[in-house]
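user:
I keep going back and forth on a fold encoding question. Separate attempts, laid side by side, tell us more than any discussion would. Would you put together a sequence-and-structure record for a protein of your own picking? Write it directly below this note and I will take it from there.

assistant:
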Amino acid sequence: MRAQASVLHLDLDAFFAAVEQRDKPSLRGKPVVVGGVGGRGVVATASYEARRFGVRSAMTTREARSRCPHAAFLTGRFHAYREASAIVMGLLREASPLVEPLSLDEAFVDLAAADLPDLEVATVSAYAETLRARVHEATGGLTASVGIGTSKFIAKVASDLDKPDGLVVVAPGTERELLRPMNVTVIPGVGPATGERLRRAGIVTVADLEAVDLDELVRLVGKAHGAGLHALARAQDDRAVVADREAKSVSSESTFDTDLTDRSLMEHLLTRQAGEVATRLSKHGLSGRTVTIKVRMHDFTTLSRSTTLPSPTDSAPTVARLARRLLADLDTSGGVRLLGVGVSGLADWVQEDLFGETLGEALGEALGEAGDGAETAPEVELPDLSRVRDRSGWWPGADVVHDELGRGWVWGAGRGVVTVRFETAETPAGPVRSFAHDDPALHPWQKPVEDEPEEP
C-alpha cells in the first residue's frame, strides 16, 4: 500500500450498451441489453435503464427478457467497442506510461508516473475530473467512473462506489474505515462458494473478516487464499501497475443453440478453433506447451481435459490433433452445448526455431499419426455457426446500409424479413423500414479502412 493515493482505476459505464445507445439515437434513455439473443444467450452488458428491472451481466437472455421484455436486445458490435476502447486507452497512456488494461472497458493507471506537480488528494481529484471529461468528449459521449486509492484493490473498490459517471478518491489512512462495513464479496476472490463458507463461519462483512486471525482463515479457505484474504481485509495490497500484462493463455470457444451429438462435427469444430488459436499465437509471436479442451454438456456439466507437450508449439495441426484426441476420451452422447480449445504455458519461441525441426512431424511420429502437418480428419462442409441464431444472417443491432436510404441498423429479423431503423450517431432518431432478407439493395456496413500514408 502506497503512502499517497496514486493508483487510478477507470471503468467505462455499461460499456457495450453505452456504445449502442451512442450510435443508435432511438435507444438513448431506454433499456438496452447486449449479448446472445438466442434461447441460450447470456447478457454481456445491460444499460442502467435495464438494470432497474433487475437485468444483470451473466444472466441468461431468457430471464432478462422476462424481467424487461420491452428492452432492445442486441448482439455485440465488437469493432465499435474496440474502436472506443482504443481511444480511451490512448488517453490513459497520454496520462501515464504505466497503464494496465484489464479489459476493453477498464484499466489501472499509475499516477506516480504521470507528470503531476504532486499526489495530494486535491491534485489527483482535479486530474481525474479532467480525464473523465476528455474521455466523454473523445468517445462521443461515453462516461467513466473513476476510483483513486493507495492500491489497486482500493482504487477498484472506489470506482464502484459512485456509478455511473462518478469519481471517488480514498484518502490515505481511511482505507480500512471504508472497507469494514462492506460485504466480504467486495474482496477479489470471494465468490459464491467462498462467500458461503465464510458466512457459515459468521463472517459477513470485511470487519468480520478483519477480526479473524490468519490461522483460522487458512483453516477455512486454504493457505494461499487465506493469506490473501487476511491481507486484503486490512487493505494491504502491494501489487504494481504493470504496463504490459502477459497473456497466460489463448483460447477460442463457442456455445450452440442446439446440442451437438455428431462426433465428426465436434472434431471439425475443434479443428477450426485450434486454427483460430494458432493464428493468434503466431500473430503475437507466442507458442504454448499445454493444450486444453473445454466441453459443456447438455446438463450444464463442464469438463476440461489437457495434455502437455515437451516443447511449445504454435502449429494449428498439432493443436487440433491433440484437441481431437482429448475429445475422444469423453462421452458426449448426451449432447454438447459448448466446445472450446485453449493453449497455455506460453513462451516467445517455438521448437522449430531452436532445432530446425517441425514439431508437428515429431509429434506425429510419437502419436502414431501422419506427421506431414496435414489434417487427418476428412473434409466436410461446416455450417456457419457464427450465424446459428439467425439463418438469414441479419443480427439485431448490426450495422447495415441501403443503396437508397443510407445507413442504419437491424431492428429485427425473421420469417424472411429484416427490419431496419435508419439512423446513426450523427443523426436524429430515424424511420423504420422492412425488407425481404435477400433484398439486393441492403448490405452489411463496415467502416471504410483508411489508406495508409505512403512512405516518402
Remarks:
- The chain has four domains: 1-149, 177-232, 249-385, 390-444.
